């Protein structure tokens, strides 16, 4: 059952991504040969005016197949992607990740309207630690840590996780005032960690009004996107082990745990938590697809940027070869991550 739920979540994310490509392609006059939900053998299909809409047997993704998407000899074919101006090709490529961010925004709106927002308001300051000594008070709302924006309690948790022992300029809102304090974390030998001595409950409060719901929904997308980017940066710097990377098998396990941990609280709670997982995964998918790596949307966008700089198309045979090599390496990496997940879970 948990595997089925995970597959449904994955399918939603991928289909929404491909639907973004589809909408942008149609808007730019690119002919879409097939829009498929699922992969593998065809179960059902409907022929539209220009596009075959199909349902396939393996619920592990989907695709939006466009004329001239990969073929090097279709640059002059009417309605092909390759025949379109570079800005239209960039729009079509960016639309997929953008729709993932859009889905994350829509899910955030539903979650926040039902569960409320976890503002970062201090419920206590620990005596003898930098926060108290600097003058922070109960009721202060933290709005920034160094150059990082803080809207949610989770913003604070994430910042402290990645910057445990670093000095920090804390910005707070106290009534109508905005104040700043410089704090140097103090080592707690009993807990074996650095602390600045602040306590937040993370309690959720109702979001009042459409304007605030829109604002917090956008901030929710910002939080998830920046969390992914920060995690990637820390991994490159060696502060996060590659062993912490989770692939499809690990995500299925995580979704299963989410269902098991929340089903005692009722179906509505389960659905909200699954939406939260889908929000995180959708933001992840959007960011990862924009990385400038071959075979990904970001890699294809990079070639478009090169074309803009050079003012002439990049050799399509070379571009195709680069993307093919990138796809092979990407599949190999996914296989390694999947085997790591299996080993971690079962052994």
Keywords:
globular, two-stranded antiparallel sheet, 19% strand, alpha+beta, Pdz3 Domain, four-stranded antiparallel beta sheet, 347 residues, 52% helix
Give the topology, please.
Layout: H1 2-27, E1 32-47, E2 52-66, H2 86-115, E3 122-125, H3 130-134, E4 141-145, E5 148-149, H4 153-162, E6 168-174, E7 177-183, E8 186-188, E9 193-195, E10 198-200, H5 210-236, H6 248-262, H7 267-289, H8 297-310, H9 316-346
Antiparallel strand pairs: 1-2, 3-10, 4-5, 4-6, 6-7, 8-9
Helix pairs in contact: 1-2, 1-6, 1-7, 2-5, 2-7, 2-8, 4-5, 5-7, 6-7, 6-9
Describe the protein's architecture and organization.
This protein has nine helices and ten strands. It is α+β, with helices and mostly antiparallel strands. The chain has a domain at 118-203: PDZ domain (Pdz3 Domain), CATH 2.30.42.10. The strands form four sheets. A four-stranded antiparallel β-sheet has the order 5-4-6-7. It has a two-stranded antiparallel sheet with strand order 1-2. A two-stranded antiparallel ribbon has the order 3-10. Helix 6 packs across helix 9 (316-346). It starts with a helix and ends with a helix.
